[in-house]
Amino acid sequence: MLTVLTAGFTTASCTNEDPSTPTPSSAPDNAATPSLTFEEAYQKLPMDGTERLPITWDLAGAPDTAVVLAARRSLAYEYWIGQSTEWAPVIAIGRYFYTDRHYEKFLAPFATTTSDNPRTGPVWSKVMGVEQSSTDQATVTFCTDLGYWHDTKDTDFTVREKRGTIQSYVMENVESGDGERHWLADRVLDPDADREAKYGKACTAWARHKP
Q1: Dmax over Cα atoms in the chain, in whole Å?
Q2: Which pTM value belongs to this model?
Q3: Which of 44, 146, 155, 171 is the most exposed place for a label (fewest CB within 10 A)?
Q4: Which residues of the chain are under the pLDDT cut of 70?
Q5: Strand, coil or helix: what is 24?
């Protein structure tokens, strides 16, 4: 997902490989689907990040509609994994933020992964825009300031020169196991080269935060 996590394991279309990505373990056969409600899963998600990796949101770019909120949950979920040492409890509720197709391909293989080099922050994320392609599909684009985001083992860390990254979530409004329709992320474009021309300059100017 995102360069965030490890950059290696999410993006369906365009994520760069990251040499620090933990090696995935084989997912257990017939892994049980979590028995939470969507609301219970949302309550478990640290939307504003964690002590190790806090997230500050700038929502001035678009109203916090259902699809934008769902995309923000998916982004927060990825950073939650990135700062974790034990991925199993986080991966287990990924179905509440991603479509089954994305979950099986990009999350399930990491169900037993551990990391001794989690990521740390802080990060800032701004909603840049929403493109509605159909009633049941939309792309939500963020600018995320990763200036202070790094591996915990990086003892020589300095603030990144290239801080802002354009990342987009292709959201699908699908019927889920509870019989209701929910917006779920189906693809993660990180970085989103196609929208760099539109949002890149503004993202670079915005991504200048200090803790």
Answers
A1: 50
A2: 0.85
A3: 155
A4: 1-34
A5: coil
